[in-house]
Amino acid sequence: MRVAMIGTGYVGLVSGACFADFGHVVTCVDKDAGKIERLKQGEIPIYEPGLDELVAQNVNAGRLNFTTEAKDAIAEADAVFIAVGTPSRRGDGHADLSYVYAAAEEIAELMSGFTVVVTKSTVPVGTGDEVEAIIKKTKPDADFAVVSNPEFLREGAAIKDFKIPDRVVVGTDSERAREVMRELYRPLFLNETPILFTSRRTSELIKYAANAFLAVKITFINEMADLCEAVGANVQEVSRGIGLDGRIGRKFLNAGPGYGGSCFPKDTLALTKTANEAGCPVRIIDTVVEVNARRKRAMAEKVIKAMGGDVKGKTVGVLGLAFKPNTDDMRDAPSLDIVPALIEAGAKVKAYDPEGMHEARKLLTGLDYAEDAYGAIDGADAMVIITEWDQFRALDLDRVKETLKGDVVVDLRNIYSPEDMTRRGFSYTSVGRPAV
Questions:
Q1: For this structure, is 263 an active site residue?
Q2: DSSP helix/strand/coil, 115
Q3: R_g of the chain computed on alpha carbons
Q4: What is the mean pLDDT of each run of 10 residues along the chain (436 residues)?
Q5: In Å, what is the CA distance from 249 to each residue of 68, 158, 216, 235, 240?
């Protein structure tokens, strides 16, 4: 089948490359001429493990193309995916749908023959209705169907998530559109992937409900971590104790500095706005948004407390800036709250992230960037672990002890053992675990 992917951001690029790897012919369209030229040269604008090889293989095979010219790509396509950004709108927190609606209008003008228009972007309930109305208004005689097909890709594991997904959700009442979507995802039938066909509005809400529920789990265990610290319990054992219950599950029960990234912050906020407008406030999600914002700010206070209550004139070595490992995504990363708060309190900050420093430099100023983990902690009074990259899990602790000027280690991801760190002479602070 022929596919046009409008947008070459994280979702569009990963989805386009994976559809091409399924054997479809995919053209990724973007108005950013510089980005398209870099993609043609094999330069991938985001860090996602394995994506550069996947793109190169399918470009060489002639199944994946990049262009700024949408005309031919859309006219020839069996399915056109809208994969543009839907950031939080300034002022009210709603999802900004201007890029989605602009894409819908452009598609309407250029489509030819029966075309399935698929919203891959995360959009509020009812967006598909508006996309359909825009296309009808722009081209009254258009032969098309609008489908919701939300993505469930984890940054750092996106290719696996696309090719071996837990499920595929398709929202449409059109049998013709269902047949096109079945053909697009036919390679997944071999893995017996569950494909849920539902209404468009239900599909749109599934995406928000899924992200909100996971955000609830993260926030819940973070609050349990605070309680564990207050009463002398161990949050990791609490997580294991409740996670073994099949009704709860083990995933997303790791205490830390709060959730971030491109999805959870904006999606939880957008869901609360949609619910309030519908007259059905989601008070649990309202609280999750508030608690998570407060938690990220509290992590800086945790570091300051571990350093004796005053960081003026002291140096803090920060390991990890991206919101999670295996990505360079800095959107709503906890580091964006923690690092500025430490600098404001008078600390000098040196930081290192394996992939995120290019993006971090655009957002974080007033600190020094190191070439590696040991450079970040060289001469520092404290080492603070914010992101749990694998390379931070196996630091040479004897070298860390020699490199640090002080002995304070604040581990916001609980990747080290309190007993081992204390035995090695560190003043060790973690999240939700009793001090040794």
A1: yes
A2: strand
A3: 23
A4: 96 98 97 95 94 97 97 97 91 88 97 97 95 97 97 95 96 97 94 94 97 97 98 97 97 96 92 94 97 96 97 98 96 97 98 96 97 98 98 96 97 97 97 90
A5: 44, 21, 13, 15, 9
Place of tokens 């819908």: 104
Q: Classify residue 373 by burial, with Cβ atoms within 10 Å: 0-12, 13-18, 19+.
A: buried
What residue ranges of the chain are covered by domains with CATH 3.40.50.720?
A: 2-198, 237-429
pTM reported for the whole predicted model: 0.93
3.40.50.150, 3.90.1150.10, 3.40.50.720, 3.20.20.190: which CATH number matches 2-198?
Answer: 3.40.50.720
From the candidates 18, 28, 228, 263, give the one annotated as an active-site residue.
263
The CATH architecture annotation of domain 237-429 reads 3-Layer(aba) Sandwich (3.40)
Q: Would you say 235 and 433 are in contact if contact means Cβ atoms under 8 Å apart?
A: yes
Tokens of 50: 């394995």
Q: Is 147 exposed, middle or buried (0-12, 13-18, 19+ CB in 10 A)?
A: buried
